[in-house]
Amino acid sequence: MSEARPSPLGRATAALGSPALGAALAIAGLVVPVVGWAADRGNLKMLLGIQAVLILILAAGHYWTRKNCIQLRR
To answer: What is the number of alpha carbons within 13 Å of residue 43 lying toward its C-beta?
Structure first.
């Protein structure tokens, strides 16, 4: 029998907890301002918007991971 396909919500939550997504967003967060500085013609509001979206995605991933993983007491 074939296995059931994961739901879109399940795939989205798995992606939020993915270390690869976190690393890609971190690299993009470093590259975007450098490209904007090097271009010297970049739209500042667009760069700030991109940075805000990257931060919100990282924060959502952190929140989801913290909520769904077991917390061990010290």
So the answer is: 4
Tokens 């917390």 correspond to what residue?
71
Contact 21, 61 (CB under 8 A): yes
10 Å CB burial of residue 49 (0-12, 13-18, 19+) is exposed
Give the separation between CA 46 and CA 44, rounded to whole angstroms.
Answer: 5
Is 54 in contact with 32 (CB distance < 8 Å)? yes
Contacts of 16 (CB under 8 A, 6+ apart): 57, 60, 61, 64, 65
Tens-digit pLDDT string for the chain (74 aa): 456 777 887 777 677 677 887 788 888 888 888 887 787 776 778 888 888 888 888 888 778 777 777 777 77
The model's pTM is 0.60
